[in-house]
Every structure is written in C-alpha cells, then in structure tokens.
Write a structure and sequence with these properties.
This protein is of the alpha/beta class and about 150 residues long. The chain has 5 helices and 6 strands; from the N terminus they run H-E-H-E-E-H-E-H-H-E-E. The protein has 2 domains: about 50 residues, no CATH class; about 100 residues, Rossmann fold (3-Layer(aba) Sandwich), CATH 3.40.50.150.
Length: about 150
C-alpha cells in the first residue's frame, strides 16, 4: 500500500500526493505512515476505488502497481490525469503481452507515447517493468473515451 506515492512524497517534498486505496486496513496503515513520516498537508489518503474519484481527484502523474491488466488500468487511470499528464504502471514480466492486449484501450485514448522501462535488472531476480504512457486524450467527466468495461 502507498507505493510509489509515499516514496515520491518523501524524496520530492515539492509534490502534492493523493493516495487512493479501497481497503480500510490499508487506508489505516497509510494514514499512520503519513502521520509518522510528517507528510501531513502534502499527502492525502482517500478510501475509494479509482473509478469513484474521477472528477474529484486528478494529477499530472497517475500511477498504479499490481492492480489489474493494462487494459483495465488504462480505463481507470486515464480519466484521473490532467491534460498533458502521464500514466505510470509498475508491471511484471508479462508487460508486453498486456500492452498488446490493451491495444483497443490505447487506441481509444489515442496514446502517442508508450514506453517500457526496465528497473532493477542488475540487482533484482525479476526486474520491475515500468510502463509510461504520455500524449493521450483525457476524457472529460468520466472514463477515457472508448475505455473498455471488459473483465478478465
């Protein structure tokens, strides 16, 4: 819970960070962490699902880690990004397959730039694959244009 948002808030005191978490026990942990790390005023914790905060919360950078396949993530995250923002998703070794399956969702938001960065390969058994999506259309007031409702 709270990754990467808490880490970014610690190393970048200039950032305002909103952590969105649906599970109460994780919200409790995150609130405790924010208090213990003296991040009050810069980090807020919201108990909700991403799709429930569209229109009330937005950011230049919207991130997710280990939540869902890329197609679903795009539908949940893109509406939370501000114009000119970016989506960052931390994924595992199947990232390229997930991106191939997310073709319709990427097309729906007219993603101009999709990059995969490999992080930690020299010291982790399985490096983290970080997907960065930029230059996409932000839907006004709801899901990204054409974002899929499909479940996997």
């Amino acid at each position: 819970a709270g990754l990467p948002g808490l880490v970014w808030a610690i190393v970048r005191p200039d950032l305002q960070v909103t952590l969105v978490e649906s599970m109460q026990r994780r919200v409790d942990f995150l609130n405790l962490a924010v208090d213990e790390l003296n991040l009050d005023g810069r980090v807020s914790v919201v108990r909700a699902r991403a799709e429930d905060v569209v229109g009330t919360t937005s950011g230049q950078v919207v991130t997710a880690r280990a939540v869902a396949p890329m197609g679903r993530l795009i539908g949940w995250l893109a509406p939370l990004a501000t114009e000119g923002g970016q989506l960052i998703a931390m994924k595992g070794r199947n990232v390229h397959e997930e991106l191939a399956e997310a073709g319709p969702e990427l097309a729906a938001i007219k993603a101009g730039s999709v990059q995969v960065h490999i992080c930690g390969e020299s010291w982790l058994e399985e490096p983290t694959m970080v997907v960065q999506i930029q230059d996409f259309e932000v839907a006004k007031g709801g899901r990204s244009r054409g974002a899929s409702n499909r479940r996997r």
